[in-house]
Write a structure and sequence with these properties.
This protein has about 350 residues and is an alpha+beta fold. Helix content is about 25%, strand content about 50%. A hairpin with a 3-residue loop joins strand 8 and strand 9. Helix 1 packs across helix 2.
């Protein structure tokens, strides 16, 4: 109880008199040595409470931001995206087969390999990478600009390089570092097709939590001997809707110096975690370019299912899709992609 309230009650209890004034003064003098330290303690407690409130707000913001980023990463991991392989610096081998069934042409089946071998005694700075240089889309569907079935950005094709007709394999030494907060990888190696080509690749990526959103930029530059320079820019935004759902807005721009054409892929995706073994994605993509003026080349609608079939290393992915390419006067072109994938190493 404050001293002013104590003395005020005494003065208000009856009419004014000197005796009551003296009593009030004695009470004040008696309580002052106790009240003064208490007031200082109250000030210290108020300051501490204020700091605790500020820390609580900061910690809450950081916790929410981490949860959003963790959810995005866990969904990427469940859906088997490239971003997770880049982030998690572990030795891992991915072996997969991809079969795509089309309505108007023969089905195709391809085998793929991706090896990330962390070299010992390098403080996880170097990896040996062996992979199909022109990899598949993140959902496992093949990259085909004529009848795309992608539920995500076709990262390798959008980098602008010409897709070879023969199966190709690349071997490279990867250096991993950080540049101004961006996770940075640099690859230098050899690609084997009908000819042997030297190539290099630089990739930068980072996640920026922004309240309920996560801004996820990524930039990749590729140089291939006899094919030139190409680039791919990703500007993605994630928002966590709840524990099971994530909304992602994907935006990609690609360019290569051979054609000097900018290609764009834009669209929303909803990612659903059904359970620990199953994930779904619902996707709409608009593909366009500036050839020679800006025009839409294709619309793609797809649903992706990725499910863990055995233990924690054998998956399958099923992607039914419908595309509407310009070259077919935007006539519907359905397709179905089935991918089986086995992961060995640190998962």
């Amino acid at each position: 109880m404050r001293l002013s309230s104590i003395s005020g009650r005494i003065l208000e209890s009856s009419s004014f008199c000197p005796v009551k004034i003296i009593i009030a003064i004695l009470i004040f003098l008696f309580l002052f040595p106790i009240a003064a330290p208490a007031a200082e303690n109250n000030q210290e407690n108020n300051q501490e409470n204020k700091e605790n409130q500020e820390n609580f707000v900061d910690n809450t913001h950081a916790t929410i931001s981490k949860k959003i980023t963790r959810l995005a990463t866990s969904l990427d991991s469940l859906l088997g995206t490239q971003r997770v392989d880049d982030k998690i610096n572990k030795t891992k081998i991915r072996l997969s087969t991809v079969t795509t069934i089309y309505e108007s042409k023969s089905s195709t089946t391809e085998a793929n390999i991706k090896l990330n071998l962390t070299l010992p005694n390098t403080e996880k700075r170097f990896q040996l990478v062996i992979e199909n240089y022109y990899d598949k889309n993140e959902d496992g569907s093949p990259i085909d600009s004529r009848t795309p079935t992608s539920t995500s950005i076709p990262r390798k094709e959008s980098a602008g390089a010409q897709q070879p007709t023969d199966w190709s394999l690349a071997t490279a030494l990867r250096y991993i570092t950080s540049f101004t907060g961006f996770r940075t990888t640099f690859d230098a190696g050899v690609r084997f097709t009908s000819v042997v080509q030297i190539f290099s690749r630089l990739r930068l990526q980072r996640d920026f939590p922004m309240g309920k959103w996560v801004f996820r930029p990524a930039e990749q530059f590729d140089w291939i001997y006899d094919e030139g320079l190409s680039s791919s820019t990703d500007i993605d935004f994630d928002r966590r809707l709840n524990e099971k759902w994530l909304f992602r807005l994907l935006n990609n721009m690609s360019w290569n110096d051979r054609e000097d054409i900018y290609n764009f892929t834009n669209g929303p995706s909803f990612y659903q975690t059904v359970n620990e073994r199953t994930g779904l994605s619902y996707n709409i993509r608009v593909q366009s370019s500036d050839t020679p003026r800006y025009e839409v080349n294709n619309y793609v609608v797809s649903v992706g299912l990725r499910q863990l079939l055995y233990q924690n290393w054998f998956f399958w992915t099923v992607v039914p899709a419908v595309s509407f390419p310009r070259e077919l006067n935007f006539y519907r072109t359905p397709s179905l992609t089935i991918r089986f994938e086995a992961i060995f190493g640190r998962i």
